[in-house]
Amino acid sequence: MLDTTAVFAQMQLRNRLNRPVSVGYRLVVRDGHNTLFIHSEETAARISKNFEAFAGQLVRALELDPLCTDIVELRQSGEEPRWYRWQVRWVATAPVECIAEEVSAASARRHLTALLQVQEEAAA
């Protein structure tokens, strides 16, 4: 199990009901491409229900180019973390269509775990 408190910085976002919610994030920049990891200590539904609102806020707050950014969600409910890669269609910095796909390949999960634990981080 990953120690998310040591890896993720916290950001206050607004959910779809305009209520404040704390979401963990970590930005890793490699070869001009951004991988934005997100995590919520609460239920996984917190992010999935509010993803469109959160994605737009994160991209604007971190001043990211959405076309050069992958968003990956970490869900931890047991020993093994579960990874979800969000496919987003953007209009400027507004997400208009979002679909989460679980990362099922073991090699891809290992790669994401290693990438998340990289010491260099562009924002915190």
Task: Give the helices and strands as they follow along the chain.
Answer: HEEEHEEEH
Helical content class: 25-40%
Shape: globular
* Mean pLDDT across every amino acid position: 89
Strand content: 35-45%
Q: What does this 3D model show about the protein?
A:
Strands 1-2-3-4-5-6 form a six-stranded mixed beta sheet. The two termini are about 20 Å apart. The protein has three helices and six strands, in the order αβββαβββα. Mean pLDDT is about 90; it is low at about 120-124. Helix 2 links the parallel strand 3 (about 35-40) and strand 4. The chain is an alpha+beta fold. The chain has one domain.
Short description:
Helices cover 27% and strands 40% of the residues. It is of the alpha+beta class and 124 residues long.
What brief labels describe this structure?
124 residues; alpha+beta; disordered C terminus
